[in-house]
Amino acid sequence: MVPWPLDRVRRLRTWLLVRAGLWRGEWRRGRVRIAAGVRLLPWAMALGASRRSWRYGLYTPAGLRDDEAAPLIVVLHGCKQRALSFAFASGWTRFADRAGVRLLCPEQRRLANVFRCWNWFHPRAQAGRGELDVIVAMVGDAAARVRVDATRVAAVGLSAGGALAALLAFHRTARFRAVVAVAAPPLLGAGMHDPQGVMRQGLALDPLLALGTRSEPCAPLAIVHGLADAVVAPRCAEELLAQALESLRRAGLEPSVTETTPDGGAVASTDYRAASGLVVRRVLIQGAGHAWTGGPGGHPYCEEGGVALTALCARFLRDAGLFESSPEPSP
């Protein structure tokens, strides 16, 4: 546990960096507007044909030109977090500087959720719409500003952001080369569930019921979970894994375990492969709680100590082919 004064100093450092724009690369602000003719929240007023806007930050490392193709990683924050601060505190901006990749960091609206959680539990999101449309629109908007290789787009998220990332893996498979869900609950499907109850105890029914009749495979997915997580129970990782493997089986891919690797004792990784290559990786971290560890820290649910999660996620993205250059089109 980080001492209270040190934690406050780190949070102040992160806040100053974001406010002053002290980065090696360049942040650009963007905004997308989405039609909101339905209730985004069960208790919200119907919005008719109005449109609502969401902001995002687009980070480009120094030396990367706008007309130069590079991988794009969508970084989805969790509850009580802010997009740019989370990108720094988790270590993703540092990784982007080293690897030469762009980051797209969506910002949840406070009017959409008072705690700035992504509304992964909403029926429209579970059905593949809702705030998934927001993220896809942001990717399209970013592609209009810089050169985005559509075959090298990934999504990474923590907690509520991880849940939204997982939904992208299942519902927007063609748009994402790979997805990482950290401390994320499983898919809920079309049934009635208590999201808080699912987070604490897992699903009450068979997790495969959440897939309904769908037969499409999920995108290559890494499921990362701390075994000491008191906010989202480790059982949720097993349920999300079962859903991912079942989606692949229904698509005829027949995944099989190919490798189980304890990384230094605290981290146990299990890979599942099919004819197409790596399709699922489950990573369980002994002693880890509900936080992004191993980065600069200084933001809620971000800790400096512990396993370097950004490097762990980047390893999966590499193994899933995100950093492989796409062949240039023939003249």
Topology (SSEs and partners):
Blueprint lengths: L3 H17 L5 E10 L15 E10 L9 E7 L6 H7 L2 H8 L2 E6 L15 H4 L4 H13 L4 E11 L1 H12 L6 E5 L12 H7 L19 E6 L8 H16 L5 E8 L3 E8 L2 E9 L6 E2 L8 E2 L5 H11 L12
Parallel strand pairs: 3-4, 3-5, 5-6, 6-7, 7-10, 11-12
Antiparallel strand pairs: 1-2, 2-4, 8-9, 9-10
What this model shows, in words?
A 10-stranded mixed β-sheet has the order 1-2-4-3-5-6-7-10-9-8, sandwiched between helices. It has 331 residues and is an alpha/beta fold. The model is unreliable at 37-49 (pLDDT under 50). The protein has one domain: Alpha/Beta hydrolase fold, catalytic domain (Rossmann fold). It contains 9 helices and 12 strands.
Core attributes:
alpha/beta; 331 residues; Rossmann fold; ten-stranded mixed β-sheet; globular
Rounded to the nearest angstrom, the radius of gyration is 19 Å
Please report the total strand number as a whole number.
12
Spatial order of the strands forming the largest sheet: 1-2-4-3-5-6-7-10-9-8
Determine the mean pLDDT: 91
Describe the sheet with the most strands.
Answer: 10 strands, mixed
CATH topology (level 3) name: Rossmann fold
Strand content: 25-35%
Provide the CATH top-level class: Alpha Beta
Q: Oligomer, anyone?
A: single chain
What's the SSE pattern?
Answer: HEEEHHEHHEHEHEHEEEEEH
Question: What are the low-pLDDT stretches, counting only 5+ consecutive residues below 50?
Answer: 37-49
CATH superfamily: Alpha/Beta hydrolase fold, catalytic domain
| CATH architectural grouping | 3-Layer(aba) Sandwich
The helix-and-strand class reads alpha/beta
Shape: globular
Query: How many helices?
Result: 9
Distance between the termini: 58 Å
Proportion in helices: 25-40%
